[in-house]
Amino acid sequence: MMRRGLLILATLLGGCASVPLEETTTRAQISDSSLPPMKMFGVSYPTAPIQSNANIANDFVSLHFQLESGRELPVLTRFETPITVKVTGKPSSNLGADLRQLLNRLRDEAGINIRQISEGDANITIESVSRADIRRALPQAACFVVPNVSSLAEFRRERRKSKTNWSVMTDRTRLGIFIPYDAAPQEVRDCLHEELAQAIGPLNDLYHLSDSVFNDDNVHTVLTGFDMLILRATYAPELHSGMTRDQVKAQLPNLLARLNPAGVSVPARQILPTPRAWVKDVQTALGPGANATARRNAANDAVRIATDQGWQDHRRSFSHYMLGRMTQVYDPLLAQQHYETALYYLDRTPGTQLHRAYIITQTSAFAIATGDGAKALRQIAPALPVAQRAENASLLASLMLLQAEAYDLVGQTDKARAVRLDSLGWARYGFGSDWSVKAKMQEIAALNP
Q: What is the pLDDT of residue 216?
């Protein structure tokens, strides 16, 4: 029984909870369904930043004065007028509600003057297009934002001109965001959060940020309390487009003391830099295009770099998490060792409960595959409210489906049936079409020996 469970674990669990950063499978548009109605998150519960203002100031400068490629930006840019947003194309059914909720949060939490319009020219145009159209424009992108365009057709015409080059901008007046309509509702919402945040705020991502969407590990998928503070600071009256790095740095201590008084007394921490080689390993291991051997080699190298760097934070954990995912297909027991190591480093890093919840999908699945339902239930219980607060429906549904299998293992079939039924509304939001929801159910059910 244990050997059968481990075989299923190795062959099926790869998609049990979406690996952060990894591109998701194409999904059909949701239509009439035999499943329960889709559930959506109505209220956000962002937590306040836990960092020192000194660290936040350094992060603010790094986020605003560098592109993801490493290229330096000469000046701060932002919108200097009230911001208008318009949706064009073929928006998916959930886009309107998720966009309204996001705009409300930007007004309430970040103090940004932003509103949606239906007619006329807008500062930001969100064009809803097919995934195929996005891939033809940028093959490795799930969604993206471009300056000084309002449509994908305009981007194709202007893409090699200076007007679409972020590094030559001095302020922001018009941008285009391109998101897929033929994707799971959660993927559409996640694109809205990340791309709209970059359209109005920082253009860089930093892997050392544990509580931010401005991080390419994609653990956080909706704007956090840290992100809202960064955006509120971006639009503070002390700053304006055209300011240099030194000019912005001079304003930040008093500005952050006003916006985040709790961060004044928090001691600053030394943040070790993230080498480009480690970033490249992560992109190879979890991005599209590489074969299994290349992914595994990249994950091994990421662990080596993290060890050599002496990291004790979530980056060290993420390296072992990746290697566990790469190892699981041929050695599930070794993969569990990597997951335990990943959890060890998360225990030493405050504010990483969501990172832990991702790993719990793997360790609890292993417990189920080896027949230990009680252990799986103990692991899953604290992860459920974390996934709920993070508004991550795919993670929440995966945990609930695993919980249902664990309840079956311990003989609590009524609880298993109730949890499984309750998970389906979240699964429809997280995974999309009926076939993908049912495939996920079958995949997790197959773990049960």
A: 86
Judge whether 211 and 50 are in contact, CB under 8 Å: yes
Eight-state DSSP code of residue 139: T
Q: What angle do CA 430, 435, 439 make, to 5 degrees?
A: 80
Q: Count other C-beta atoms under 10 Å from residue 36's C-beta.
A: 14
Q: How far is residue 164 from each of residues 150, 325, 334, measured CA to CA in Å? A: 11, 37, 47
DSSP string, 199-229: HHS-----TT-SS-SSSTT----S--HHHHH
Q: How far is CA 344 from the centre of its chain?
A: 22
Pairing of strands 83-89, 175-180: unpaired
pLDDT in tens, 367-408: 999 999 999 999 999 999 999 999 999 999 999 999 999 999
Token look-up 């930007």 returns 106
Q: What is the pLDDT of residues 138-188, one digit of tens each?
A: 988 999 999 999 999 999 999 999 999 999 999 999 999 999 999 999 999
Strand pairing report for 124-129 and 83-89:
parallel
Taking alpha carbons only, the member of 205, 204, 202, 200 closest to residue 177 is 200
Give the global pTM: 0.92
What's the CA angle centered on 212, arms 15 and 377, to 5 degrees? Answer: 45
pLDDT value for 68: 87
Q: How large is the greatest C-alpha to C-alpha distance in the chain, in angstroms? A: 66
Exposure of 60 in the CB half-sphere (CA atoms within 13 A): 32
Task: State pLDDT tens for residues 241-250.
Answer: 999 999 999 9
Report d(CA 387, CA 152) in Å as an integer: 34
Q: What CA–CA distance (Å, rounded) separates 91 from 199?
A: 19
Sign for the CA dihedral angle at 372, 373, 378, 383 comes to positive
- All structural domains of the chain, each given as residue ranges with its CATH number in brackets, are 2-42+271-445 (1.25.40.10), 53-263 (3.40.390.10)
**Could you give the angle at which helices 185-200 and 413-431 cross, rounded to 10 degrees?**
50
DSSP-derived letter for residue 207 is: T
